[in-house]
Design goal:
The chain is of the alpha+beta class. It contains 7 helices and 9 strands, in the order E-H-E-E-E-H-E-E-E-H-E-H-H-H-H-E. 35% of the residues lie in helices and 29% in strands. The strands form 2 sheets. A 5-stranded antiparallel beta sheet has the order 1-9-4-3-2, covered by helices on one side. Helix 3 packs across helix 4. The protein is elongated.
Length: 209
């Protein structure tokens, strides 16, 4: 039975497992391609998600190999999108090597009724379309549409806004992860800090952990 999910930096994973062992006693670690399960004698269990394509076939199936895989530097393309802003970029490890950030005006919802409400809704829809068009154009210009300059593509912000942008760039939509990581309105500072979010390792704990 699942209890909760925590997320930690990959560099902290070895220490986290050591503290888990101190709390719950001797553990068995079973490493699969896309997850490592840490099970203690008292029934506590932690399931560590192994992203970035999972452990390569033939690689060692131990905790050290999992940590090395998760902590490795990667070249990652990023799209952050919310109603009022977008940011796109490419990271080489922790370094942001290319980026474009822009803001938009998209009218908020109105409480007016009747004709006024319909007029505001059309205007808001047009503004949202223009924002998505601008973000898609920047995404194509900075990131491109194929893995020529990067190895992985991740997204953040608001799910509806991200989908609206990717609908305009179907080549990247096929490479996008299923999960959109939450972020504040995209600004350059938010983009620079985003690797901490996409590198974080999710760990699912059962109700005894």
């Amino acid at each position: 039975m699942a209890g909760r999910v925590v997320a930690i930096a990959p560099e902290r994973l070895t220490g986290w497992v050591e503290r888990f062992t101190q709390r719950h006693g001797t553990v068995a670690i079973d490493v699969h391609a896309d997850a490592a399960t840490v099970t203690a004698a008292d029934g506590a269990r932690a399931t560590i998600a192994i992203g970035w394509g999972g452990v390569a076939p033939g690689a060692p199936r131990d905790l050290a190999a999992v940590v090395a895989h998760l902590a490795a530097d990667r070249r990652v393309a990023v799209l952050l999108a919310r109603r009022a802003a977008h940011a796109v970029g490419i990271f080489d490890g922790a370094e942001l090597v290319a980026s474009k950030v822009d803001t938009h005006y998209v009218q908020g919802r109105t409480k007016a009724g009747g004709w006024s409400q319909q007029r505001y809704a059309r205007r808001r829809s047009n503004q949202a379309d223009q924002a998505a068009d601008a973000a898609a154009a920047d995404l194509r210009r900075v990131v491109g549409t194929a893995r020529a300059r990067w190895d992985w593509f991740v997204t953040g912000g608001d799910t509806a806004a991200v989908r609206a942008v990717l609908d305009r760039v179907p080549e990247l939509a096929a490479l996008a992860p299923g999960r959109v990581l939450p972020t504040p309105d995209p600004r350059l500072a938010v983009l620079r800090e985003f690797p901490a979010a996409y590198r974080a390792v999710p760990i699912e704990l059962n109700d005894l952990a």
